[in-house]
Design goal:
alpha/beta, Aldehyde Dehydrogenase, Chain A, domain 2, 2 domains, seven-stranded mixed β-sheet, six-stranded mixed β-sheet, Ald_DH/histidinol_DH
Length: about 425
Amino acid sequence: MTDTPAAALAALRAETQRPTLRERRALLAALAREVLRRAEDFAAAADADYGGRSTVETLVADVLLVAQAARRARRWLWWWAMPRPVLAPFPFQPALAWVEPVPKGVVGVMAPWNYPIQLGLWPLAEAIAAGNRVVLKPSEHTPRTAALLAEVVAAALGPRMARVVQGDAAVAADFAAQPWDHLVFTGGTGIGRAVMRAAAENLTPLTLELGGKCPVLVLPGADLPRAARAILAGKAVNAGQTCVAPDTVLLVGHTAEAFAAACRAAAVPVETAVAPAQRIRQAALAKEGEALPGGIVLVADDSAEELFGPALALRAVPDLAAAIGWVRARPAPLALYLFGASRAEAAAVAAGTRAGALVEERCVEHAAFTALPFGGVGASGFGRYHGRAGFESFSDLRGRVRHGPFALARMFDPPRSARVRKLARQLLR
């Protein structure tokens, strides 16, 4: 039996001693070791939860990424945690001013089912690096993986630093309503809104990682067979059940028929099953579209919802301006992909659109860059983590000032003479 969200929060909040940098580094090293030690167990658990998940995808996209993120945070922690000097304005000199990152307290992490290990333990690792304690709520749709996460967290970090709460949607709602010092949620936009409403009652700061219809712009300069293969490779990862998976391909200077032919020739296989929670919806999409060799389905671009599976929508547009207009007319996505763009075209897309990331010539892989801030904008979420961005998101950047014995600004202390009042007006000029 696991803790309730409230009990887990209370237990960790009772631990008032902040971990030192040396202790944090030891915890991060222990987390990386334990995750790698249980790698095959994670692969087996995810395979059972999905009813068929690629071992390679679990080992690389979930397990290895978490170990790399924890090790990188450990390696850079001394630098990230250093106080940073700030120049005091001349009228207040002599004075010393600096910014110091301090832990927020207890961070709650709500992880989804699609990458249950990576999206649970990566933010957990960076919250630990920032000196916080963490409560993790894995998805109820991956129960075997959730149970294993509880074992790994207990073995690597111990109950005084981190805890795992398991349970259904009611437990998740209770979790979101707790007065965390910071809350991380990864999932769909609709549930993200509910989480944000619950967090608002406690003014809990949030990191929301959502998704959206991540578009791909295939421009006239693109090598169509190469672009098709790269797009399908990104869509095939985890059977398209990835928040940054390509969703809709906007073809500029290419026909949908030519792109579909390039996709047939590429024949990129899908090695992971559609998760049980998605099967009915994906089966309906499969009936409407063309199944490619390997399992990805091409469908018409007529869905306002994120496809979130092995389906790819196609739409031919007359020019780059029309493609940019299509993107601007919809909620900002977590990622926007470009193929065959000149520097001028890439600059036009960057200036004319909003997205969490703008990536050229490949899809999805940027999410594995451990030093690149990751997050959305608008409907695809807000807040950033990965690397230093995560350390700072889970820290309060506290200002510190040490004043000297005198300063020009002291002449404005009351009582103020007529000369000082005249000087104030002169300064405004």
